[in-house]
Amino acid sequence: MTEKYAVVVIGGGAAGLSAALVLGRARHRTLVVDAGEPRNAPAAHMQGYLTRDGMPPAEFLALGREEIARYGVELVRDRVVEVTRGEDLIEVPGNDLPEAPGKNLTEAPGEGFTAVLAGGRTVRARRLVVATGLKDELPAVAGVAERFGRDVLHCPFCHGWEVRDRPFGVLASSPASVHQALMVSQWSKDVRFFLHTVAEEELSDEDLRRLAAAGVEVVPGEVAGLVIENDRLTGMRLADGTEHARSVLFLAPRAVPQTGLLEGLGAELLDTPFGAYPVVDATGLTSVPGVWAAGNAIGFAEQVVHAASGGYRAASAIVGDLLMTDLDAAAQV
Questions:
Q1: Mind listing the pLDDT tens digit for each residue in 292-320?
Q2: Which of 250, 270, 297 is the last residue of a domain?
Q3: Same domain (yes/no): 52, 156
Q4: 201: exposed, middle or buried (C-beta count within 10 Å: 0-12, 13-18, 19+)?
């Protein structure tokens, strides 16, 4: 049998759990489908989230799962492989919905959704929250993948304080990497910008002036790999064999948005330098009626605190949307 929910949340990270918490507290039968692949899994801690600064990401998610369970929200470890639009489900008087006494879910013509899970389960929902995030595609440099989240880092706001004043390296992946090299100079005055596959001629005169003003040394030549000693990054090795002593490396992964489900529903996407993301309004509503998106599903730079906020906004908008839909339906009976 196809199970029926008011809302299905696709993704169990900060955005998805935050949305589920609000929906559960609003007495809506909610299912979270979590594939268990959080973007920040390689990191030992997360920073910049008031009252949660320094908390391990896994602990943060575990607490979130405990909280949503208090309100009857169901969470399943699975992956949504397909979503289609179908008939709506409306709340009508009844007593078959434990999470919302006095209400039941029944079908009516409209724009509800059917989601198929990899494990074979099929579920129906009135509304969707897509919080599938993105994946980081790392440069193909020997040692980078193994050290990512430890001493190979991406975000100085996330990790800059913890590695402050150490010798930094910044690996260029495009001329835009100049911005990253300039930003990390806030946390260390010993920064070397490794051009790697970027030619020095690709940098503008303004880039070079700013790098010089920030005290960032530009190092031409392709990086062949990292130098690791006693399970620590100690340097960068160039293709010509030259080594540069560094204890921290910053780089910019290629963002790969997980937008397949949204594309399948016909959501409008906007191309950005960091991938294509759904066009959303202030609450996260996409161009597909009944489908909201939050967290890294809507942008590359969404931190955990932004994702949690986005999930909250989406859920509160859904609560209002469902209420008005049901009131309008009841008025027509």
A1: 999 999 999 999 999 999 999 999 999 99
A2: 250
A3: no
A4: exposed
Parallel, antiparallel, or unpaired for β 243-245 and 152-153?
unpaired
Same domain assignment for residues 119 and 145 = no
Q: Let me know whether 89 and 236 are in one domain.
A: no
Q: Are 19 and 312 in contact (CB under 8 A)?
A: yes
Backbone angles phi, psi at 166, to 5 degrees: -85, 165
Which H helix or E strand runs over 60? helix 57-69
Give the integer Cα–Cα distance in Å for 199 and 222: 10
Rg over alpha carbons for the chain, rounded to the nearest Å, is: 23
Give the residue from 250, 276, 305 where a domain finishes.
250
Judge contact between 163 and 153, C-beta under 8 A: yes
Query: Considering its fold, how many domains does the chain have in total?
Result: 2
Q: At what angle do helices 57-69 and 14-25 cross, to 10 degrees?
A: 20
Global confidence as pTM: 0.91
- In which band, very low, low, confident or very high, does the pLDDT at 94 lie, cut at 50, 70 and 90? very low
Query: DSSP letter at 295?
Result: G
E-assigned strands of the chain? 3-10, 30-34, 74-77, 80-93, 103-117, 122-130, 134-137, 152-153, 168-171, 191-194, 217-219, 223-229, 232-238, 243-245, 248-250, 254-257, 269-272, 275-278, 291-293
Domain residues for 147?
139-250
Specify whether 10 is located in the same domain as 131: yes
The CA distances from residue 240 to 174, 208, 243, 247, 277, in Å, are: 21, 24, 9, 20, 40
Angle at the Cα of 158 from the Cα atoms of 152 and 160, rounded to 5 degrees:
70
